[in-house]
Amino acid sequence: MVLDLQNRLIDLNPAARSILNLPHAQPLGLGVAEALRNHPHLLEQIDTGLEQTCLRIMGRDQIQYFESRLFLVFNRKHPVGKTIILDNLTQQALLIQRLETLAAIEELTNVWNRRHFMERCQRELQRLENLGQPVSLIFVDLDYFKQINDHYGHKTGDEMLRAVAQILRQGLREGDLVGRLGGEEFLILLPATVPDQACQIAERLRSMVELAVLVMQPNLTVTASFGVTGLATAANVSLDELLAKADAALYQAKESGRNRVVCA
């Protein structure tokens, strides 16, 4: 892509037209503010003279990533225009995203690991606070897991963890977050969900867990206890506070006989 010093488009190859989704009939000589109005980050690069930047451009079926490099064009040491070169970095970007996702997933259960879950929760709480929306948190603990693990062996314990994690993933809505804290403990963050609704979700999950059938021990009943807390609006609350309240509710569920939901 070639511009003059007045930022008018004076040359554009077919590849650039395709990448930027510009009509082939669009005449040259247009100012970039009009020609590239759907590409604000590219316009910003041109306006500021930034030599290099990364662009996210919506392609036909997926987002594509490009490195955009801007060069001044000189004639006898005098600037006469600008050239922009777009390099497609989509495959590299997708590979990085895939590696980041793999690093954030807990291998045994295929849910978020503790570190990534906590980071996601912090960001989600901030977003919900900005929107003035409710938030709820569910603390899940498998009942008698240590005894089952010791009696039936680690393979059965691992199958139990995988089965429960799959139930939690499948039983939640898009946008809900689930992570494994470690051992037999899981956490669920429910954005835009009032406490009463969270308690209903927890009860449904509890029933689903109780119906789980393990391949290695089909006669073994799997149960879990649930501690639920939440706020009508996610304002002035820390993740640690929510965790403490959900943990207290979970303790009460355990003390009350396990395999139940307690809402704080």
UniProtKB/TrEMBL annotation:
GO terms for molecular function: diguanylate cyclase activity. PROSITE patterns: GGDEF (PS50887). GO terms for cellular component: plasma membrane. Pfam families: GGDEF (PF00990). GO terms for biological process: cell adhesion involved in single-species biofilm formation; negative regulation of bacterial-type flagellum-dependent cell motility. Residues 133-264 form the GGDEF domain. This is Diguanylate cyclase (GGDEF)-like protein. It comes from Hydrogenispora ethanolica.
